[in-house]
């Protein structure tokens, strides 16, 4: 890996293109490197994971609305077009709209993969737009795998090197450039074209973190799909010879200077050198539970603690000692009253660790629908327990959250339960059970089990088998087989149920 310094340059300094971060990202995308077998296998896992969580969300209103928008934009004449989760495989739409609809379906339940470092990310958000473009242009599985691998590589590099949330910038500002780079690899584009597309994507996908603050709405699921859609459009424009604001990262009126740490900022982004294998996807991890990633380990701990605590009504207070990120984003440190509201939206509840721990303690389980049901959130005993739970930042857990050593890196915390009888109960957990270093790491068998569980009752067993047969052969798929990477439920959802301009 090569460390690249990123800092602000005055226009008079004339920072040359090869010295700009966008160019270095583009050079990685344009470098044709063979995908190593273990990386290809993980790509297959994540394609399966995305499909399962998308199937479970097909009838949810945000997904239905996005799908209705997509079908209003059929594929252009002479193009194969892209499939949409939930619709028959012969229904084909324009790739940017397939990226939109499928991206919303994948993201809606907050249930696919994650990578946390200086910032947050869900690298699986790269897959819908890259797959849509591959289908639309009649490309094969080998090209698709290369594109996805590049998308993961760039997003992980940016998330490791540049913190966005500190400045209240939403993490999709790293996703737009990573998708553009992934599309560049997919299509075999030149460094020049990808350079322009990466900068356009950065410029157009920089938004605020209010998407994940206060009364969180369906836009939380829409935001990454929006970034994928705009990245497809950015690549299309760049392929037609159109340029971008440059240098987008380092310019004196650019991204770093005015939206991040300012004119004196220094960041280091590490990218693979020429010919170096792309392995970043192996550093990412999926979710066993449908909730924000920093709650995964604490759900597992709560499930174990529940039986030890006996009568939960005797609890006076639960304090979760955890990292700055967990405390500020999903904990009481966020200062959001909605995180304690029984009428809060699903999107808000999955960003409330007090709620999540309360339900996991009571139920000994976590379910992507039942755990968020309005009647579940409003249960008086749940509300009473919920409001006894607080988070505090702990320097050691913050240090471990940012640790470079995988054996040290942690996303959990220490839980102190005070009861009105007896001594406090104290326990801690570093990583989720499903994490590569957890009690039950996810492998192919676990991805398949999760897929079967989420598609049961939505997709027939025959359709599940058909999809999996295609997915496990991903690197060898011929162009006419790529359209099989979608799911058609037993009762396809109706289209046209929502109305708008289109």
TrEMBL record:
EC top class named in words? lyase
| Swiss-Prot/TrEMBL keywords | Lyase
Q: Name one GO molecular function term.
A: 2-methylcitrate dehydratase activity
Tell me where the signal peptide lies: none
Gene3D superfamilies assigned to the protein according to its UniProt record, in alphabetical order: 2-methylcitrate dehydratase PrpD (3.30.1330.120)
**Could you tell me the EC number(s) of this protein?**
4.2.1.79
Residue ranges annotated for the MmgE/PrpD N-terminal domain, each copy included: 20-265
Instruction: Kindly give the InterPro entries that the UniProt entry links to this protein.
Output: MmgE/PrpD_sf, MmgE/PrpD_sf_1, MmgE/PrpD_sf_2, MmgE_PrpD, MmgE_PrpD_C, MmgE_PrpD_N
Annotated catalysed reactions? (2S,3S)-2-methylcitrate = 2-methyl-cis-aconitate + H2O
Residues covered by the MmgE/PrpD C-terminal domain: 289-472
Q: Which family does it belong to?
A: Belongs to the PrpD family.
Q: How does it assemble?
A: Monomer.
Q: What is this protein called?
A: 2-methylcitrate dehydratase
């Amino acid at each position: 890996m090569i460390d690249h310094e990123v800092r602000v340059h005055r226009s008079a300094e004339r920072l040359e293109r090869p010295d700009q971060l966008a160019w270095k990202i583009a050079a990685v995308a344009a470098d044709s490197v063979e995908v190593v077998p273990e990386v290809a296998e993980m790509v297959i896992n994540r394609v399966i994971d995305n499909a399962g969580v998308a199937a479970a969300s097909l009838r949810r209103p945000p997904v239905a609305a996005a799908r209705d928008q997509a079908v209003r934009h059929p594929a252009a004449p002479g193009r194969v077009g892209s499939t949409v989760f939930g619709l028959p495989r012969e229904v084909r739409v324009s790739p940017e709209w397939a990226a939109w609809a499928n991206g919303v379906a994948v993201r809606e339940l907050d249930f696919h993969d994650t990578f946390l470092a200086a910032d947050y990310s869900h690298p699986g958000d790269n897959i819908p737009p890259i797959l849509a473009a591959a289908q639309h242009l009649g490309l094969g599985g080998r090209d698709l795998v290369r594109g996805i691998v590049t998308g993961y590589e760039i997003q992980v590099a940016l998330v490791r090197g540049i913190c966005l949330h500190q400045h209240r910038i939403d993490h999709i500002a790293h996703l737009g450039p990573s998708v553009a780079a992934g599309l560049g690899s997919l299509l075999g584009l030149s460094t020049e074209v990808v350079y322009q597309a990466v900068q356009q994507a950065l410029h157009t996908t920089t938004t605020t973190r209010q998407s994940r603050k206060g009364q969180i709405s369906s836009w939380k699921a829409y935001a990454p799909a929006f970034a994928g859609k705009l990245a497809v459009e950015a690549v299309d424009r760049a392929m037609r010879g159109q340029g971008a604001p440059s240098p987008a990262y380092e310019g004196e009126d650019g991204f770093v200077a005015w939206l991040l740490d300012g004119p004196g900022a220094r960041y280091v982004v590490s990218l693979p050198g020429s010919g170096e294998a792309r392995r970043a996807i192996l550093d990412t991890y999926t979710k066993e539970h449908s909730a924000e990633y920093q709650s995964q380990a604490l759900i597992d701990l709560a499930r174990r603690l529940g039986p030890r605590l006996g009568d939960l009504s005797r609890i006076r207070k639960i304090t979760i000692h955890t990292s700055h990120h967990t405390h500020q984003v999903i904990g009481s440190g966020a200062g959001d009253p909605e995180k304690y509201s029984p009428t809060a939206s699903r999107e808000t509840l999955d960003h409330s660790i007090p709620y999540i721990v309360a339900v996991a303690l009571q139920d000994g389980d976590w379910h992507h629908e039942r755990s968020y049901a309005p009647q579940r959130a409003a249960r008086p005993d749940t509300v009473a327990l919920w409001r006894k739970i607080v988070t505090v930042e702990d320097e050691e857990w913050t240090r471990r959250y940012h640790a470079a050593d995988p054996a040290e890196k942690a996303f959990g915390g220490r839980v102190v339960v005070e009861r009105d009888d007896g001594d406090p109960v104290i326990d801690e957990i570093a990583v989720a059970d499903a994490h590569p270093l957890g009690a039950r790491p996810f492998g192919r068998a676990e991805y398949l089990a999760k897929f079967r569980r989420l598609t049961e009752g939505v997709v027939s067993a025959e359709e599940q088998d058909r999809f999996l047969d295609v997915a496990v052969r991903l690197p060898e798929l011929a162009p006419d087989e790529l359209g099989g990477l979608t799911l058609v439920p037993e009762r396809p959802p109706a289209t046209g149920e929502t109305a708008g301009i289109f």
